[in-house]
Amino acid sequence: MFRFKELASLPPQTRRNVFRRVGYMLFFDSLIALLLFLSAGSADWPFAWVYVVLMALIQLCGAFFMPLEVLAERGSRKENTEAWDRTLTRLLLATFLSLYLVAGLDFRWRWTAGYGLAWHLVGVLLFLLGCGLEIWAMSVNRFFSTDVRMQFDRGHTVCSSGPYQYVRHPGYVGMILYYSVTPLLLGSLWALIPAGLVVILFVIRTALEDRTLRARLPGYQEYSAQVPYRLLPGIW
C-alpha cells in the first residue's frame, strides 16, 4: 500500500506534518479549480480540465516519489522564517491566485482570440518540464522547504547533486517555467501579466535567499564558486 510502512516508522509529529502537507496540496488544487471555473462561469473549458488533472497527477507523483522528510518539512509550522520571505510569500500567493482569476475571466469574456492546438500542447510540454524539474530538485534536496529558513534543527547542509550541479536554485527554475507557460496552456494571453509578476517575485526571492545562504549556511560560499549561476547557466 501507499508508503504505509514508511509512514508508520516516522515519529508522530513528522507523520502529522506529512498529512498536513498532503492536505494543503489537495486544498490548493481544489482552490485553483474553483477559481478557474467560477471566474470562467462555465465548466466547459477543456484546457482548464487538462490543467487541473495534470496538477493532480503531478501532486500524486510527488507524494509517491518525494522523500517523506521533505513533505514533512514543507508541511511543518515554521518559527524561524526570514521576515522578508513572509512578505514575499503573501505576495506570491496573491499573484498565483490572480493568474487563475484573470485566465478564467479571459475565457468568459473572450479577451484572447483563440490560437491553434499546437500552442496549447507546447504549453503542456513546458509545464510538465517545469514540474519535473521542481520534483527532481525536491527529490535530491532534503532541505527543500516552502519557507526560506536555516534548518539547523535538521542538520542543514548544502545540496550540490542532481540539478544543483548546474544552477543553485533549480526548484525556482521549474516554478518559473511552469507558471510562465500556464497562460499558454490555458489559452489566456492576459494571464501573462500576473505570470510576469510571479517571475519577478521569484527572481527577487532567489536573490534574497541566495544572499541569506551565502551569509549563514556553512559551505555555501564554496558551492557558489563551483556553481556560479543562480537560475540561468551563463546568464545569472
From TrEMBL:
Main subcellular location of this protein, as a coarse class: membrane
Domain of life: Bacteria
Subcellular locations according to the entry: Endomembrane system
Keyword set includes Transferase: yes
Residues spanning the membrane: 21-41, 47-66, 117-140, 176-204
Membrane topology reported for the UniProt record: Multi-pass membrane protein
Keywords of this entry: Membrane, Methyltransferase, Transferase, Transmembrane, Transmembrane helix
A biological process from GO: methylation
This protein's GO CC annotations: endomembrane system
GO molecular function per UniProt: methyltransferase activity
Ribosomal protein found in the keyword field: no
InterPro entries hit by this protein: Metal_cation-efflux_comp, Phopholipid_MeTrfase
PANTHER family: BLL3993 PROTEIN (PTHR43847)
Name of this chain's protein: Phospholipid methyltransferase
Top-level taxonomy: Bacteria, Bacillati, Chloroflexota, Anaerolineae, Anaerolineales
